Amino acid sequence: MSSIKLKVEFLGGLDAIFNHVREHKISLPYSGEPPKMSDLIRHLADNVMTDKKDHHIFIEDGSVRPGILVLINDTDWELEGEDEYELEAGDVLTFTSTLHGG
Amino acid sequence: MSSIKLKVEFLGGLDAIFNHVREHKISLPYSGEPPKMSDLIRHLADNVMTDKKDHHIFIEDGSVRPGILVLINDTDWELEGEDEYELEAGDVLTFTSTLHGG
Amino acid sequence: ETQVDAFFTLEEYLRYGRQMTVRELGISGQRKLKTARVLVIGAGGLGCPALLYLAGAGVGKLGIVDNDVVDTSNLHRQVLHSTERVGQLKCESAKTYLQKLNPFVEIETYPVRLLNSNSFAIFRNYEVILDCTDTPITRYLISDTATLCGLPVVSGSGLRTEGQLSILNFNNTGPCYRCFYPRPPPPNAVTSCSDGGVLGPAIGLVGVMMALETLKLVSGAYTQDNFKPFLTVYAGYPTQSLRTFNMRGRKADCKACSLQASITEKMITSGEINYTEFCGRVNYNVL
Amino acid sequence: ETQVDAFFTLEEYLRYGRQMTVRELGISGQRKLKTARVLVIGAGGLGCPALLYLAGAGVGKLGIVDNDVVDTSNLHRQVLHSTERVGQLKCESAKTYLQKLNPFVEIETYPVRLLNSNSFAIFRNYEVILDCTDTPITRYLISDTATLCGLPVVSGSGLRTEGQLSILNFNNTGPCYRCFYPRPPPPNAVTSCSDGGVLGPAIGLVGVMMALETLKLVSGAYTQDNFKPFLTVYAGYPTQSLRTFNMRGRKADCKACSLQASITEKMITSGEINYTEFCGRVNYNVL
Ligand SMILES: [Zn+2]
Ligand SMILES: [Zn+2]
Q1: Which of D:111-140 have CB within 8 Å of C?
Q2: ipTM field
Q3: N or C, which end of chain A has less CB nearby within 10 Å?
Q4: Any bridge partners for residue B25, and if so which?
């Protein structure tokens, strides 16, 4: 069992369901294949989220719910392969709620 | 003769005397001892400044003139040894004029 | 009024002199501002500061869409209204003040809710749209209408101590709101400033940023070559910060802006596209 | 006026409700705002937006120092003045509008130039000082006076498309202006907004940031433990950005704030310290 060290940020109020902490240092355990974004997202939902009843705020249909933007090293994850992106040590993963207030 | 690669930024209008370019990639040549901030400052004044008659805008009494802040990797150079700081490859050196307008 | 040249009177040169001397704008930028027509949708926490700086800068024509009236609870952040104007239409209250700030600006007010039935008729009189609204429903309508009209959108938003800023449909080649958000958020996840609260300066800062982005668009600072789709995120705490993220371009299958786009003006004006249904209604029982 | 509790009327709860629900401020922060006394020096490009958001937020007492009058060339960026008030004192023009925005705020105007002879008498009535001024001469005077009075300074500045923000003398342990700048810049290197030009939203953004920093100071967001000396730098172009630099603490030999400080109130009020001489005079022949 190896692990990979990552920095995970929750912005746009999303920190509220992750213990009100905006920046997390995550050590993501894995065996075999290097872990993907989908593995990190599952890990965050299962092990980092404060309260399981907030699951639907973060996850929908097995991935991040609409209205949450995901950035991989400051770049839209759509440009990086989304769920399939292979994580590298030191990556910065940012999750932010879209804000609608004006 | 070796050289060290650095990123140099000019903010607060200081880019005006460096060809109106805010971000420079500098390859600083040196021999023997690793170069210091004082070597970089001399190099910028001698080889990067557009017009020698602007020398006094950047330099006074052999160092950076009062009213210019110097940051080494986003930290006030006073905390890093000022002129005596030993440069490392990849360092980001920021020079910014103090602004006074209101 | 002494006319100095084909563009400006002496009074205008005096008024705009300090910004015309800024290289990034210049006299050429000031001329473009004078002929520019800019529509601001929402005269609230974002719209107030955006309007103040756009009117100050000398945009030729400003449109203001807002059917809401000034409420006491707005005044901590909607700083161009005032206590004596509580109960007045926000668009008229804004016009009253802005006209005093800069009588050279033509201001047109639209005391209506932006709807499928009126968005095209309003947008067609303008060149740049500022989205200063409060719900995804309106944000999709603004983006779809602007995209079909070929107009860029400066899009801002904020809540509590944070904010977001982007430019949509830049030059009819940049991504639109649907490219970023093909599916709307679940309605229960959407919080307005009235519900969730907001600090005045936090939302105000985003509005001021929107004004500068508009000046850039109008003066031609952004070009097809240098424009990269972005989302800038502001945080007020712990240290005030801005982060700019590189965003996707147009989605190949976007319903509004791609080559395969299926949305037409008629589908919007006829009500065939129902934004309220698309975004869903809040089910308060879930909470 | 229905009094709801010992602190606020119903009207105040309605007015400030949207910001009191923000966790970072809260009702406790709102109470501190109500008893706070904040002095804004300069009602220009920085002072106007700072004053708008501080008055909106409900600071108990606001002081405004400015002996200048409104000029047409100010209005593109000094958005709380207006065309009809050209020629009026800026501090009175500001008060007129701010009082309409929020009648709950007590506003005191000082239509004087800040000088060695009056700075202490004015500062002693306040808890936080905003430096929205235009020359190093005044910036040194403000910092020295505030340091000797034991007050923090929210210091902003801007020019063309850029800006800078810092907090000085935090909690009487943070660095002062002299710590950052022990020697003044050569006078020919100093450019004001009137001379060098400035974009309204660029300087406006810094003023809005100053308002938020003031809310943080008053509400206790900064503590002796979490405060780190900083300088935040704003750039409007090419992408709007903020960079925050970690700055030095107090200089061991600072003439104003260190244990070896030599500057006294008497040296300032008597004119023994001559800021104009210290900063030098512009020698236009050199240019
Ligand atoms: Zn699209
Ligand atoms: Zn000091």
Answers
A1: none
A2: 0.96
A3: N
A4: B7
